[in-house]
């Protein structure tokens, strides 16, 4: 089925001989030579065995009919040769197309072989890594179980911490109320202390004024006492 490449010919059918132009021309020349041989043989036999005077005209007509038949055969063979040439051209184009398709198929086959080799390598890698993958899956299952247990513990701890947080929030609210009350008491105490500090400042200022007045009186008294002391000292001397 189909065309198969052979050495020594442009193309050939699978299991057949090369079919080029020369192949059909050989048959054409063979038919022409056979026709010429038959004509010559007929003439020779006619000349040897026939009656020239009686059958010349009938033989001539038969020869003309035979020649016309042979001419028609030659015309048919020529047309057949032209058709065969067209078929040969079409077959050559089909051969080129088939060659291109064959090259493309070979490239695709090379890519498929490369992909197959890569798949084989990946398969070997997968087979070699399968025990590790099984161990990883088993370890993952154990980790998931541990994670579930840890989640349970974490949930219990979360509920406990949440309860403690709510309790601390209640206590914090109470402490805030106490602090607010203490703050209000301290603010009131602060106002009283500020008032007392203001009164103390006034008293201190008044005492400073009185002290300044006493110091002024003392200085005045000291000035008065100095001349008397000098006079007493002179008198005693």
Shape by Cα distribution? rod-shaped
Q: What's the average pLDDT? A: 77
Largest sheet: none
Count of DSSP strands: 0
Low-confidence runs of at least 5 consecutive residues? 1-15
From the alpha-carbon coordinates, what is the Rg to the nearest angstrom? 69 Å
- The assembly state of the depicted protein chains is single chain
What's the structural domain tally?
Answer: 1
The secondary-structure element order is HH
User: Strand fraction band?
Assistant: under 5%
User: Ends: how far apart?
Assistant: 171 Å
Structural class based on helices, strands and sheet pairing: mainly alpha
Helix content: over 70%
- Please give the count of helices: 2
Question: If you had to describe this structure to a student in words, what would you say it looks like?
Answer:
The chain has 237 residues and is mainly α. The protein has one domain. Helix content is 90%, strand content 0%. Helix 1 runs antiparallel to helix 2. The longest helix is centred in the middle third of the chain and has 185 residues. The N terminus is likely disordered. Keywords: Membrane, Transmembrane, Transmembrane helix.
